[in-house]
């Protein structure tokens, strides 16, 4: 008897949630079957993007050897640190870390599905020159946090309804319509970034020593 009441209550809750527009979050597959990603694979950011895309579209092929139907291209990535406050001795007391990532989505004909889109994130970090190594580790953690935030925002953009609508428009365009479709200017794929260089240093670069005196 109790189980029957529970089932009835759960059914009523489901009906009420549906009526108010609530929708359970689930997989939102992308409209194409194969994708080339130019974000360097050796970076944590590139790995997170690929993992998220596979989660959203389990059947999508992400393989450089497979002719892609679409390309997710990295246009630019800028990481920066800025001193925002000084202590009484005139030394850095707080840094602002920023990450800006620009990307675009195009099809195999270089036709623009999503134009250049820039996502930015920023974090504040107190600084103490007596524990620089610990602060370098804290900065790396903050950059990873910003990366995760940008990946989530990027996925929401890539799986938005207007992306599928644009893909369908390009796929069904007549020869005459194809002539008027904007195409993207080719860009060079970014080179892999050595891990020690992936985050800006919080200290000045060392001065080269001149062996010749």
SSE blueprint and pairings:
Elements: H1 2-19, E1 35-37, H2 44-56, E2 70-86, E3 92-107, E4 112-126, H3 132-158, H4 161-172, H5 175-178
Helix pairs in contact: 2-3
Task: Explain what the structure shows.
The protein is 35% helix and 24% strand. It is α+β, with helices and mostly antiparallel strands and 213 residues long. It has a 4-stranded mixed sheet. Helix 2 links the parallel strand 1 (35-37) and strand 2. The radius of gyration is 24 Å and the shape is elongated.
Question: What's this model, at a glance?
Answer:
By secondary structure, the chain is of the alpha+beta class. The protein has five helices and four strands, in the order αβαβββααα.
Query: So what's the overall shape?
Result: elongated
Order of helices and strands: HEHEEEHHH
* Biggest sheet architecture: 4 strands, mixed
The N- to C-terminal Cα distance equals: 93 Å
Query: How many β-strands, per DSSP?
Result: 4
What structural class results from the helix and strand content?
Answer: alpha+beta
pLDDT averaged over residues: 80
- Helix fraction? 25-40%
* Rg over C-alpha atoms, rounded to the nearest angstrom: 24 Å
How many alpha or pi helices? 5
Q: List low-confidence stretches.
A: 20-25, 205-213
Strand percentage: 15-25%
Strand order of the largest sheet: 1-2-3-4
